[in-house]
Amino acid sequence: MRRRDRPRDRWLIEYLKENAAFRRYVLRELEQRGPLLSREIADHKPSRREAHRWWGERKMGLMLGILNARGEVAVVGRQGKQRIWDLSERWYPPTETVRLPTATRLLLERRRRALGVWLEKGRLHLHPEADDRPVPERTTLLGPFDRLIHDRDRAEALWDFFYRIEIYVPAAKREYGYYVLPILHGDRLIGRFDPVHDKKTGVLRVNTVHAEPGAPADAWPSVRAALDDLAKWVGAEEVILPRLPRPWR
Q1: Which distant-in-sequence residues (6+ apart) come within 8 Å of 215 by Cβ?
Q2: Is residue 7's pLDDT more than 60?
């Protein structure tokens, strides 16, 4: 939380130096009255309001976010969609201070252990403690940031599954759709959906369905069940499908 080696870290440190009085004010308010919603902390008038597309005119959200990134304040709950803030020392347990090189090494080891297999310099590496037991025969849809596919290059190396988020790609140039969800079937990625939930009509409309080469035809019932689970989770009462790819027609 105190690293200084990234460009963003240098910007955060410089911002806190330039706004030292603002920082002290926010920490004092939390110390005396916390936990608090950001709107419960009055503006720091010397900092003045300025329009900004990310945090609006108030700079309170910006300051709280920076202090959170530096480990001085913590999100300790939520009230609806609003975060509740407090001093981190009241919520984080005491711990020893770890030097950055040691922390970096430990974090890397934990990430590799959690992944089991990672990609480095174009080669796949297997962690010695990786679990090689058979994967349960279940089917589910993966979110774009699921850790299984978060590293796009790793996913492509493991499954020959090219996956990119196309939200920012012009509609005419999209290959698979706006918000595509990969389909995990057992230990294989066998396809992808591009669903959209119309809350007004209660319909989950699937714009496109793509099956990967070699996708098993008999997987469709479990794929459809996973889609129905998604519909139930978002509160849709009906699922509308497009024309299905050949193995699932």
Answers
A1: 185, 190, 191, 245, 247, 248
A2: yes
The residue-averaged pLDDT of 80-98 equals 91
Cα 26 to Cα 8, 20, 83, distances in angstroms? 21, 10, 15
Mean pLDDT of the chain: 91
| DSSP H or E stretch at residue 125 | strand 123-126
Query: What is the radius of gyration, based on Cα positions, of the chain?
Result: 23
Contact criterion met (CB below 8 Å) for 230 and 141: yes
Does residue 226 have a pLDDT over 60? yes
Return the residue matching tokens 């959209």. 196
Query: Which tens digit of pLDDT belongs to each residue from 113-126?
Result: 999 999 999 999 99
Q: Return all residues near 217 (Cβ < 8 A) that are at least 6 apart.
A: 247, 248
Residue 81 C-beta-side C-alpha neighbours within 13 Å: 0
160 sits in the region (left: phi over 0; alpha: psi -120 to 50; else beta) called left
Instruction: Please state, in angstroms and rounded to a whole number, the distance separating the CA atoms of residues 191 and 213.
Output: 9
Query: Which residues have C-beta within 8 Å of that of residue 84, sequence separation ≥ 6?
Result: 35, 36, 37, 75, 76, 77, 78
Q: Using one digit for the tens of pLDDT, what is the confidence trace for 126-138?
A: 999 998 888 888 9
Burial environment of residue 177 by CB neighbours within 10 A (0 to 12, 13 to 18, 19 or more): buried
Vertex 92 angle, CA 33 and 24, to 5°: 45
